[in-house]
Write a structure and sequence with these properties.
The two termini are 26 Å apart. The protein has one domain (6-220). The protein is an all-alpha fold. 55% of the residues lie in helices and 2% in strands. Helix 1 runs parallel beside helix 3 (47-56), helix 2 crosses helix 7 and helix 4 packs antiparallel against helix 5 (84-92). It has helices at residues 6-19, 24-40, 47-56, 69-80, 84-92, 111-122, 128-137, 148-159, 165-183, 194-199; strands at 140-141, 144-145.
C-alpha cells in the first residue's frame, strides 16, 4: 500500500492541525487507535496500515472549515504526496453507501467535483480497509470511543438529517456486524472507555455526570 510510516503520518497531521486547529485532529487520532485495535483481530488487515489510514482520513480539514469538501481536499493532498491508498480512504470514509447524495454533510464544492467523486465511488469496490475506517469514523469522538448511536446523534445535531440518513445508519450497523463476525467478538470489547465516553461517567466514581451538552463544532467530524 502507498502509505507513509506512522511517524510521517503524525507529522502530516500535526502540520494540518497547525493550519486549521480544531477537534477534528483529536477525532482522527482516536479513529487511528480504533482502526489499529480492530485490525489486530481481523484476518485480512494490517494494524499499522489501519492506524495510518485512520490518522489521515480527515486530513482535508487542513484547508479550513468546510463540509464535504474536506474529502476532496484530502484526496488531492494525499495523491500529491504519492499516498494513493490514504487518498482513497479520504474519499470513501464518508460514504458507507457509495452515493454522493448519502453523505452526512452538505456538498460545498463544484458540480464537476461532485461528478468526479461520484464516478470515483462507483468504480471503486470497497474493501475491508474502506469499511474499517468508515466504522472507526462512526465510533470516534475527539475525546474517545463511543457507541455508534452516540456518534450518529453527534453528527446529526451538527449537520442535520436527510433522505439517506436511516439507510446510512443501517449500513454502519451492517459493517459493525461484518467486523464482529471477522474478529469473533463485539467491537466494543476491544475499545477502552466506551462506557465512560458514551454515558459521561465521572472518573473514579462510576457515576454518570449531569448532562451538560458540549458546544459542537463542524470541525469535530
Amino acid at each position: 500500500m502507498n502509505l507513509p510510516d506512522r511517524e510521517t503520518a503524525h507529522q502530516i497531521l500535526a502540520e494540518a492541525e497547525a493550519r486549521n486547529p480544531g477537534p477534528w485532529a483529536a477525532h482522527s487520532r482516536c479513529a487511528a487507535q480504533a482502526a489499529a485495535i480492530l485490525a489486530s483481530g481481523h484476518p485480512q488487515l494490517d494494524p499499522e496500515a489501519a492506524y495510518v489510514l485512520g490518522l489521515l482520513h480527515d486530513i482535508g480539514r487542513r484547508e479550513g472549515v468546510t463540509a464535504m469538501r474536506h474529502i476532496l481536499d484530502g484526496y488531492r493532498y494525499l495523491e500529491g504526496l504519492g499516498y494513493s491508498a490514504a487518498a482513497r480512504i479520504s474519499l470513501t470514509h464518508s460514504y458507507p453507501i457509495a452515493d454522493l447524495k448519502c453523505a452526512a454533510g452538505l456538498w460545498d464544492a463544484s458540480e464537476a467535483e461532485a461528478q468526479f467523486v461520484q464516478d470515483y465511488l462507483l468504480r471503486t469496490p470497497y474493501d475491508a480497509y474502506d469499511h474499517l475506517i468508515q466504522l472507526c469514523d462512526a465510533l470516534s469522538l475527539p475525546d474517545g470511543f463511543c457507541l455508534i448511536e452516540k456518534r450518529i446523534v453527534d453528527v446529526a445535531l451538527r449537520y442535520g438529517v436527510g433522505p439517506c440518513s436511516v439507510a446510512r445508519w443501517q449500513r454502519y450497523f451492517e459493517i459493525q456486524a461484518e467486523f464482529e463476525r471477522a474478529i469473533g467478538h463485539s467491537i466494543y470489547a476491544h475499545l477502552p472507555g466506551v462506557v465512560e465516553n458514551t454515558f459521561a461517567v465521572l472518573p473514579n466514581t462510576g457515576q454518570a455526570a449531569a448532562f451538560l451538552p458540549k458546544p459542537l463544532s463542524q470541525e469535530s467530524r
